[in-house]
Structure formats: C-alpha cells, structure tokens
Amino acid sequence: MGTFACYTGKMDISEEKRDCFRQQMMKLLNYGGMMRPERVSMFGRELILLSPVELSKEGKVIFWYNYFEERGWEDAGFYADNLTFYSNKIGGCEFHDVILAAYMLYEMYGETPGVAECNGEMVNSRFYGGWLNHILGTEFSMEKRYRLWENAEHIAFSRMDYDDPFSMAKLSNLIADEFEIAGGTELADLLYIIYGTETLETDHIVPGSYPDDVHQCKKALIRFRETAGDNFFECLLHFLQMERSKREKNTDKNLELLAELSLFLPARVFVYLAAEINQKPFWELWKEWKDKVYHDERVKQYASKELQKQRREWRTSIIPKVRTSAFLRQDSWFTFCDTPEELMGKGNYYLSDDDRIFWWDGTDEVVISDEMNAWLMELSDRHRRLMDLPDAGCGDQFKGSDFIRDFIVLLDEICDYYKRIYSFKTMFYDFIQNSEKKEYRAALALLQMLYEENKEEGKVIKYAKGEWDLISKNVTQNIARLRLKRYLSVMANVKMRKKYFHF
C-alpha cells in the first residue's frame, strides 16, 4: 500500500532541449523544497543538517526529504546524463506534489504519448503545468492532452489486463473535463467506444454530420455482416487492408458504401462499430489490427473554420501560472485534523512566502509580507544592540573554543523542544568558520533568546504525536515554531541576511 507516481511515456528528450530540461528539473526540485538530510555527531549530540538538491560529480541527485512537509519518504532521484527520473512512495503532501510536477515536466517535453500519473490516475495538467510555467518561466499548454486518439491508445494499450482499458473517468481526467475544447471527431469516437452508438438509431441526426456518417457506416457494416457471415471479421480486415486506390475503384456492391466512407473515415470507426455489433472488446481488436489497416483517409472537416480556429487557440493557450505558495498549499481532510482546542479560532495555517525566505533572491518569486518585514527589522535592531554589548552580549557562551559545542547544543535543544527544526548545512559550517566574529556570535545569542521567548506559545507541539503528515498543520506549523524556522532560514540565505543583518 502507498502512493506511487510515474510518467507513462518514454523519457526521451530531444538533444537540443536536454540542457534546458536538466536545468529546469533541478530548479523545480530546488524551489519545491526537496532536500538531502545529513547527520552530524559532535559532543555527544546528533544534528540533522539540510542541503538543497544538487547534482553530484556523477551527474545525479538522490533525495527523500521535503523542507515544507518536514518529513522523508522513500528515495527519488534524477540522472542528468540520460535524463531519467524515478520515485517510490511519495505520500500525499508537498513531497508528492513536487514529484508529480517532475513527471509533468516530462509530459510537457515528450514528443510521444505519455502522461503523468499518480496511483494509476492522470494528474491535473492545469495545476501542475501552471506551477511549471510560474517557476520555470515556460509557456506550456495542454495541447498534448488534446491529441485524444494517440493518448487514448497509449493509455488503453498499457491497461489491456483491465476490463475497461479506457473509461469515461480516464477521458475526463485526460482533458480535465474540458469537453468543449476537446470537441471533434476524436472525442466523438471515444464517446462512441465508451457508450456505444445505440442512440444513433433514435437521435435526430443532421445529414452530412459526423454522427450521420458514423450511422451510415454502422448500417453498411450490418449489411456487410449478413453477406460475410462467420467470416465477417476476416473479410472486414481484408477490406481495411486495401490501399486507397483499390477502395476508390471498388466494384463489389457489398462494399460500395463502405469503400466510399473509408475514403474519409478513419479505419478505427469501422473497427469499433464492428466490435459493438458483434459484442467484442474494441481495444483488444484495435491493438491487433491498428498497424494492419489503412491510414490514408482524407478526413472531412465537420466543424466550421471559425470553430476550428477557436479550438486551436483554446488548446494552445498558455496554462495560467500558479505561484509556489499556492502550489504547495495543503488543504486535505488530514491537514487540520484534530486541531487542539487551544488553537481553535486562530485560523488555519497555509504556506506563505514568509515560509520560503530561504529562496528569497530579490525577485518577486518570494514576496515578504509587511508583517514579516517588520519582524525582521525588529530582529535586526536587537542583533545590532547585542553586538554593541561586551562579548556580543553573550559572555563566554558563544566565544572561542566553546562556540562549536554551545552552537551544537543550542540547535539540538531547539530541535528537541520544537521538533524537526533543522539548520541548513551551509549555514552551520559558515557559523563555525566565523566563530570569532561578533556578528555571528550575536546572531546565535539572538537565536537563544528566540528559543526561550517562544517556548510558552510553542508548547502546543506536545500534540505532535504519530505520523508527522497526519498531525494538524496548526500544531506542526504553530507560529512560535515558525519563528525559529524562519530565523534559521534567514541566517542560511546570505543575500537576505545581508539585507537585514548586514553580515
């Protein structure tokens, strides 16, 4: 049991796009909060340090932890040389969302059929594509999803061991229920395969329309079956294997209408109608016949030029962007389950850009709130005043040979009390290497104060028992705990640290 995801197509990116694809994959993993935890043991204490994903010398990255979800899953990885990606169990929160976005990137790049799936269900291309367009600056559309027939074949042929290889649910998921945009003969064919064509006998059909041509084909096939008898499928296959020139010059009265229809109707229409008439499973028959039958029809255009143009515009329209904080927002049934009474009325926790300050770079990717800005200004002022005191206001606690020990003890105590608050690896070693500088010692003194000051408000973390992702986010992301986590993020983001703390 568990949640698994995959890309059903080939991970074959064209040569000219490979470098761009590598960079984009690494960027979405990074901004999605994928991390590699590393354990460090010193002075009888064990710390976990976080490192954002980066390619190894061997050109690969393996990860299993998400900064925003604050828990690890089974490992996932990206191999930059052959551009392959894999994952195992992914849960149902932030780690899950970023993994699905990675598979969606393959779908957007893939030139052959393939869809991003989670537990056998196609993912929402608008949602995941929207985040890709935001974070990568791309202009992806859903155009590939509207190649209905090739997608349906790909999906059905990969599910031939199922009773229903391509269901209405599959079709709805494929096009995100946008039937008006997907409209056309391919959509009609899939609906006829799913629901049958019995309604053609009673519906009011416009002469010359696609339903009319399908209906005429069905009636002609019924008559043909009467003459072919038990050899119906054998004779039909023989007919569908004929070249266009032979069908155009047909002299067999039994095939007269079928031959005429075959000049503009795809062979699949004959096959799904024959399968329905004889109560045979269409997809099994089509898989056997598809490479044997004609593909030289000259398809009629049933829709007006205006409608054809409108559909092309709809299908190629750029998917609206989804900001990272909205993409990673969690709001499932479990997200706020069992919120303790003392937190009721304070509002639910949702990820904001204030929780993403490690990724702040001065652009509008991370927009700091006025409240966060005021808090950082206040901390900056406290930090400056601490530096003005003798020994940075911390006596011997964060000075000289005791610095490393006291630093590790402090981080360990913070993690022990507030749970799962980890320092970034770069920040940890940066502070150790600069232990003699008062700016760093004052920053740790301030961290010590924040640790103590927030204990009362942060004691609700005592309710954090059991599986982390099943605990109410109002508990795990209580404001006291967030202050410690955000402060450590600022200390790790050198550009932001310089902006507010000037070191």
Architecture overview:
The chain is α+β, with helices and mostly antiparallel strands. The chain has helices at 18-31, 94-109, 125-136, 148-157, 168-175, 179-182, 185-195, 210-228, 232-240, 244-248, 256-262, 267-277, 282-289, 305-316, 324-327, 370-388, 403-418, 425-433, 438-453, 455-458, 473-476, 479-492, 494-501, and strands spanning 5-7, 34-42, 45-52, 60-66, 71-79, 84-86, 116-118, 121-122, 423-424. Strands 6-5-4-2-3-9 form a six-stranded mixed beta sheet. The longest helix has 19 residues, at 210-228. The radius of gyration is 31 Å and the shape is elongated. The protein starts with a strand and ends with a helix.
Helix content: 40-55%
Low-confidence stretches: none
Question: Please, what is the average pLDDT?
Answer: 95
Question: Rg to the nearest angstrom?
Answer: 31 Å
Overall strand count: 9
How large is the count of helical segments?
23
- Going by helix content, strand content and strand pairing, the class is alpha+beta
Strand adjacency order, main sheet: 6-5-4-2-3-9
* Percent of residues in beta strands: 5-15%
Q: Report the end-to-end length measured between terminal Cα atoms.
A: 49 Å
Describe the global form: elongated
